[in-house]
Amino acid sequence: MERSLVLALLCLLWISACSNPQSQEVAPDVAAPAFESPLEQRSRIDSGRVETDRTFEDLVASYERPDRSDWQKPLSVLPFLGEHLADKTIAEIGAGSGYFAFRIVPFAERVIAIDIDERMLQFIDSCALIYLPDSMQKRIETRKAKADDPMLQTHEADVVFLSNTYAFIEDRVTYFRKLRDKIKPEGRLVIVDYKRRRIPVGPEASYKVPLYQVEEELTKAGYTEAYANDQLLPYQYILVAVPE
Asked: Where are the domains of the chain?
């Protein structure tokens, strides 16, 4: 009961800080509700182990820092997921508190919010019940993953999306090689992550993977680069790749 009450209160605080996602249009530089990156301070998770020295409430509060939309520009990122999302399944690996999942669900047929932290999945479920209309609640699903397995079925996703997550996956070439057949034919992989330079947000430098290294690793994993952009976002790059 206590946990349910905490989740409800956190969701209400989230709602009070956010505009209705139904009213948002996919357009460049439109302000959006803000969370701290679900994996921005990824010390809480190390090889599948969740940290215990920070409370869940502290984590959610950190994800909700009000300046994130200024540099994350979520509504400028969404078009990279592709056209005609209304008939597509988007799987987000490392969904955290749902920063992107709640922004994608108004446009997609289905969103699978994947994380290894059960608390974050419960938070997303609670917020969906309180915040989303019935029709949208049916579109979002949470799924607990393993550190080395996103728990997706073969050809389950049209798009696999990762934001601020790539650097924290171990043995990435093997991971993304296994991920290829989880993406439908003609589907895509979209990665947003931090540039490896001095910036005021993101994890320490050792957890930042430069764009060229991501490109090399995905090539080894069996993907072809379709598009890369390191200019749109001030602190991050965007990479779109397709399975060969």
From this structure: 2-243
Q: What is the spatial distance between Cα 221 and Cα 223, in angstroms, rounded to a whole number?
A: 6
Q: How many residues belong to the chain?
A: 244
- pLDDT tens by residue, 71-84: 999 999 999 999 99
What class, spelled out in words, does domain 2-243 have in CATH?
A: alpha beta
Residue type for position 102: F
HSE of 33 in the Cβ direction (CA atoms, 13 Å)? Answer: 23
Q: Read out DSSP for 42-76?
A: GGGEETTEEPSSS-HHHHHHHHT-TTHHHHH-HHH
pLDDT digits (tens, 9 = 90+) for 179-204: 999 999 999 999 999 999 999 988 88
Residue 51 and residue 115: Cα distance in Å, rounded?
Answer: 14
Residue with tokens 């709640």: 102
Tell me the C-alpha distance between 233 and 195, whole Å: 10
Residue 64, both tokens: 């909700």
Q: Residues 20-29: pLDDT tens digits?
A: 443 333 333 3
